[in-house]
Amino acid sequence: MSVPALLFAHGAGAGSAHPWMRAWSSRLAQLGEVTLFDYPYMAAGRRAPDRLPKLVDAHVDRLSALRARHDGPVVLVGKSMGARVGCHVSLTEAVDAVICLGYPLVGGGRKKTMRDQVLKAMTTPVMFVQGSRDPMSPLAPLHEVMSAMKAAATLHVVDGGNHSLALGKRALAAAGASQEDVDLRTLGAIRGFLEGRGLAG
Questions:
Q1: Which of 75-89 are b and which e, b meaning 16 or more Cβ less than 10 Å from the residue's Cβ?
Q2: Is 2 helix (H, G, I), strand (E, B) or coil?
Q3: Is this prediction's pTM over 0.90?
Q4: What is the pLDDT of residues 118-175, one digit of tens each?
Q5: Residue 148: enclosing H or E segment and its boundaries?
Q6: Distance between CA 150 and CA 147 in Å, rounded?
Q7: Which are the contacts of 126, defined by CB distance < 8 A and separation ≥ 6?
Q8: Torsion on CA atoms 142, 60, 11, 6, rounded to nearest 10
């Protein structure tokens, strides 16, 4: 199997140095070479994300830089907003897979728009890792979107998990598990997804 390069993009509110990103980077490093990066607004210390076209351009630039030093398979991994941007990147760039850690299917604001158009346009294999208590990606609408997608789509549900895939103390106690146990099970599911496509180290 080929060892992939994993280009890991952060969410809207926290950059690559956030403990959550660092922890998941360490876990994902068991599966391939992980590269973290910050979008321009985050690198500049601004709170509000750039508009989608600028985010996509920045993501493509990082992908190009990665390809300049890595000639093997590339997988885009993203947390929330980074997952959404990665999906858009896959429409124009040839990548081997996309992994979405908390895809933000329901947009913010009053209208609560569905961010499903890019998913239905994708042809790259994609894995969704979603918490069952994530208000930004309720599972019923996600299942409907997945049934309408052209791309091969896989779903791993973190039972009791929130938008960051974290369980509360009561849920952990009921499951007789620690958060690390939950995260390692999720990592195992991601490994299975990659191995199924010949992409795990």
A1: bbbbbbbbbbbbbbb
A2: coil
A3: yes
A4: 999 999 999 999 999 999 999 999 999 999 999 999 999 999 999 999 999 999 999 8
A5: none
A6: 9
A7: 87, 90, 97, 98, 99, 100, 119, 149, 151, 152, 153, 154
A8: 80
Residue with tokens 């994708």: 122
Structural contact between residues 182 and 162, judged by C-beta atoms closer than 8 angstroms: no
The full DSSP string for 66-127 is HHHH--S-EEEEEETHHHHHHHHHHHHS--SEEEEES---B-SSSS--B--HHHHH--S-EE
Element (H, E) at 31: none
Q: What are the chain's domains?
A: 5-195 (3.40.50.1820)
End-to-end alpha carbon distance in the chain: 7
Token output for 131:
């918490």
